[in-house]
Design a protein that fits this description.
- The chain is mainly α.
- It has one domain.
- Helices cover 84% and strands 0% of the residues.
- The radius of gyration is 15 Å and the shape is globular.
Length: 118
């Protein structure tokens, strides 16, 4: 499990850095597209490549909403940092739970769509 997560993190980092080199916008898009790879490795126990594919599948059509959501999470954590860093003890767990909720919601939505196609 650790090796899968480590390899997936390295691969994700290389993808995002490669996108940033290609004029920043592709890096942001790929960062959003593959942001849930770690959830699939931990939750479903899949390998890094499969996790990236599944993350791509659940974020299809929701990238703009996810961009705004991630921007909101950054702003919330920034407010926590402004509060003498003590606010981060509240904002980081809150944003992590929100991020996991979005992952679960996208996963359920994707599974419903796939089931209706069968």
């Amino acid at each position: 499990m650790r090796r899968k997560y480590l390899f997936g993190s390295i691969l994700y980092g290389l993808i995002v850095v490669g996108g940033m080199i290609l004029l920043i916008i592709p890096g942001i898009i790929w960062g959003i597209k593959f942001q849930f790879f770690s959830c699939f490795i931990v939750d479903k126990g899949v390998g890094p490549i499969e996790a990236l594919k599944r993350s791509s599948a659940i974020t299809k059509g929701a990238k703009w909403d996810l961009f705004l959501f991630n921007l909101l999470l950054v702003l919330i954590n920034l407010l926590g940092a402004i509060c003498l860093l003590i606010g981060l003890f509240v904002t980081i767990p809150t944003t992590m739970v929100a991020w996991a909720f979005v992952y679960r919601r996208l996963l359920a939505q994707t599974e419903i769509v796939q089931a209706s196609k069968l």
